[in-house]
Amino acid sequence: MSTLKIYGIPRSRAFRTLWMAKELGLDYENVPIDFAGGGTRTPAYLGVNPNGHVPAIEDGGFILWESMAINLYLAKKHGAGRLYPTRLEDEARAWQWSFWGMTEIERPVLTAMFNRAILPEDKRDPAAADEAERQLQGPLKVLDGAVSATPYLLGGEFGVADLNVASILTWARPARIDLAGVPKMADWFKRCADRPAARAARELQR
Ligand SMILES: N[C@@H](CCC(=O)N[C@@H](CS)C(=O)NCC(=O)O)C(=O)O
């Protein structure tokens, strides 16, 4: 059987998929496509993902892009009953949290990170970072509430919903988002980020 290919350097959103692959104990080949060097825009890579973004995967001839869709697919294929829920309602909640991550928090976390850590100092917009942090307050409270009664988003066990949302929030530290007002969320994030698979995926970023 051909090895799963994961396209994208670990210091990109491919991190999310590498973390998932490690949680699932998958054999994979990481094809280190680097967006900084124009690697996402070569004709060869555009044949994999016409959007010119990473991550993408190739799984026995099947190509898929969009980080959250990739993780939901891999978790369902290899982790049903463990990382991927079996009840229809729980599956729907895993989708809910994954879409929520992409639509409610990803953009503001990125804006804050770029304007506080990534861009050259003279290109940073502190007001945009502050505004992004302000926008995050509501969604982070929602997350804090969701993990107040149970340790993980769907209940007692870590799963794909946690991985997908926490992978976005790995940017909260470089973005210097103040988590003092959302202690349950901060504890939940630490539980997720301390997992051996998360640590192993972070090692790949060094
Ligand atoms: N919604 C996409 C976003 C992917 C994305 O924007 N990836 C960045 C790297 S983290 C990228 O490939 N940028 C390169 C480019 O746009 O050329 C996903 O989650 O997979």
* Alpha-carbon distance between the two ends: 30 Å
Uncertain runs: none
> Strand order within the widest sheet?
2-1-3-4
Overall shape = globular
Q: Which strand-content bin applies to the residues?
A: 5-15%
Number of strands: 4
The overall pLDDT average reads 97
Protein architecture, described:
The chain is of the alpha+beta class and 206 residues long. It is built from eight helices and four strands; from the N terminus they run βαβαββαααααα. The chain has a four-stranded mixed β-sheet with strand order 2-1-3-4, with helices on one face. Helix 1 (14-24) runs parallel beside helix 3 (67-79). Glutathione (GSH) is lined by residues 12-13, 35, 40-41, 52-55, 66-67.
What's the SSE blueprint?
Elements (H helix, E strand, L loop, with lengths): L3 E4 L6 H11 L3 E4 L11 H6 L7 E4 L2 E4 L1 H13 L8 H31 L7 H21 L13 H10 L13 H11 L2 H8 L3
Parallel strand pairs: 1-2
Antiparallel strand pairs: 1-3, 3-4
Helix pairs in contact: 1-3, 1-6, 1-8, 4-5, 4-6, 5-7
The structure holds glutathione.
Quick gist of this model?
54% of the residues lie in helices and 8% in strands.
Using brief descriptors, characterize the structure shown.
alpha+beta; four-stranded mixed β-sheet; binds glutathione; 206 residues; globular
